[in-house]
Amino acid sequence: MKLITDQNHARRLARTIISDITIYNTKKIKEGLKNDNLFDAMEREIEQGRRVYEGKVSPEIVESCSFYEHAVIDVMLKQSFDSESKI
After folding, report:
1. Is the pTM of this model over 0.85?
2. Is the pLDDT at 85 greater than 90, yes or no?
3. CA-CA distance, 76 to 81, in Å (whole number)?
4. Exposure class string for 54-69: b at 16+ Cβ within 10 A, else e
């Protein structure tokens, strides 16, 4: 399988992976936000997504760009903005 070498494509893939995680884990995300432990609650899902992302994107992009980490914040948190949170 050919790895993704285009930064825009890598960014879109990261956002797609996190969007899917968010859609399928809405309740768990809301609980994590409410209990102020989102990243602990979602650690398994986030890491599984990271492995998928890193398996499809060239190591140069993975190492030089934080697309996956930005997607976690930009997509997961922004899609859950209406949830109760201590922050």
Report:
1. yes
2. no
3. 9
4. eebbbeebbeeeebbe
